[in-house]
What we know:
- This protein is of the alpha+beta class.
- Helix content is 45%, strand content 11%.
- The protein has helices at 3-9, 17-26, 30-33, 35-40, 53-98, 102-115, 158-161, 173-180, 228-242, and strands at residues 43-44, 50-51, 121-126, 167-169, 189-195, 209-215.
- It has a 4-stranded antiparallel sheet, covered by helices on one side. The chain has a two-stranded antiparallel ribbon with strand order 1-2.
- β1 and β2 form a beta hairpin.
Amino acid sequence: MSSNQNSQTQEPQMIDADTIAEYLHQNPEFFEQNPDILAELNISHQVSGAISLIERQINALRDKNSKLKNQLENLVIIARDNDKLNERMHRLTLSLMDANSLNEVYIALDDSLRGDFEADAVTVKLFVDPAITDIDPDNDLMQTIFVPMEDPRLDPFRNILSHEKPVCGPLKEEQLNYLFGDSADLIKSTAMIPLGGDQCSSAECNYLGILAIGSHDEQRFHANMGTLFLSNLGDILSRAIRTYLTDKPDSE
């Protein structure tokens, strides 16, 4: 038998699905150039009946377009929220700049966080000697915001104070009671923002103090949220406070 006869009797080589798929991927115009083949193709629909390859492609593109549209809408929403946040931050910064005393700084901060940022509770604790501030000894703030760093009531916060960045999430009962007093039972989540200074060790801290923002919503402040805005807020407030310290601690 001749070699030509052998070749004629050989079975055709089978082509696997991956090879076909790769070829069609490399030649997307194949069906356009071979409409007779396209006309014979039908792909079973997931529900019933049959759907052509073109219809399947249109549906896939429609789904992709819908996902991209949703992503774009989410980006627009985020951009608008950021614009609103920046505007509120700008107003707060101006209010702190307009303050003429440490007392006015505290009032401007409290008004802004409760009004523009919808905070349910705001507490500031300063670890500085009130004697180096411009606070009148008879001012009510003397009894509320100044606390020595060695005060044992701060012991439950030592771990939080060991972080350079804000810490968000729920607090323990003793922490809530110290920070928010009669409102403690209503606070479900809190942002703790260190003010000024360097990172604390277990026994020593150079912070000016700490700002605590409380919310009745347990999802408002959580461990996985971004803290850039809160860090910026801490920096701005720290600068405002330093203005009214007659014996300023070292800058950050």
